[in-house]
Amino acid sequence: MDPNSETHAALAALAWQIELGADEAISETPINRFELPAAEPRPAAAAPAAPRNAPDPAQPAPASASPAFVPAQPAAGPDPAEVAEAAARAAGTLEALAEAIAAFDLCELKRGARNTVVSDGNPKARLMIIGEAPGRDEDLQGRPFVGRAGQLLDRMLGAIGLSRNAPDAEHAAYITNVMFWRPPGNRDPSPEELSMLLPFTRRHIELAAPDVLILMGNTPCGALLGRRGILRLRGTWAEVMGRPVLPMTHPAYLLRNPAAKREAWADLLAVQAKLRELA
């Protein structure tokens, strides 16, 4: 065969391989990569080594082994709900109750809050409104219902002749929440958090002694009525601690769903009628 033709064939084969992407020679001899590698002989298994400090089989075992050390478990802390109950019971005035709430350190929410938010308005008011929990604005100012939802609430109360700033009980409103510290990310309070703070809310109602209660939102309804589902509960009178209570949708819900303001107006008229009935 013509050596030149062999050279041309080799160069053509090399060019074809380069087109296929081969750009590096890794061996001087061809390799069949479909051939299975020869199995390597396995090394003989070594006898298991005796554990360190193993007892000598020639020596007799001790008559009895000393029991393993078990660390003592830390004693359980106080029940937060019981501590809250005792502190709330000891408060004889609204001022003392506010101090007891501010001093309560067993709720983790307090650690991340700027302020303890207890109440706003006239404590002698015939109407007491219980909301859910402080939001960002409430946490900053230390007062409930001061953000956009609070501004809407003020307009709602004004529509039936009430105000949190009114000096006389007949035209005043008293406002609080079942939670006194802002949950992170405005999440719903946990059942444990609600349970530990509920004694303060119940004592709050006893000391304020309103004629009528409004529960705004699912959280206070769950805490005081043991039921949730505000869209089913709203507009239907119930009773809490011997007082008439009307569940209502939260103003924040009304801001997101303006069409629901019509039902909220009907609820406000029902509250106005109940206050006149009990006057």
Q: Can you offer a commentary on this structure?
A:
This protein is of the alpha/beta class. A 6-stranded mixed beta sheet has the order 1-3-2-4-6-5, with helices on both faces. α2 packs antiparallel against α3 and α2 runs parallel beside α7. The longest helix is centred in the last third of the chain and has 18 residues. The chain is elongated and about 120 Å long. About 3% of the residues have low confidence. The protein has a single domain, classed as Uracil-DNA Glycosylase, subunit E (3-Layer(aba) Sandwich), CATH 3.40.470.10.
- How many structural units, i.e. domains? 1
CATH class equals: Alpha Beta
Percent strand equals: 5-15%
Number of strands: 6
Specify the number of helices. 11
List SSEs in N-to-C order.
HHHHEEHHEHEHHEEHH
CATH topology: Uracil-DNA Glycosylase, subunit E
Alpha-carbon distance between the two ends:
124 Å
| CATH superfamily caption | Uracil-DNA glycosylase-like domain
The pLDDT mean sits at 86
Low-pLDDT stretches are: 64-72
Largest sheet: 6 strands, mixed
Shape category: elongated
Helix content: 40-55%
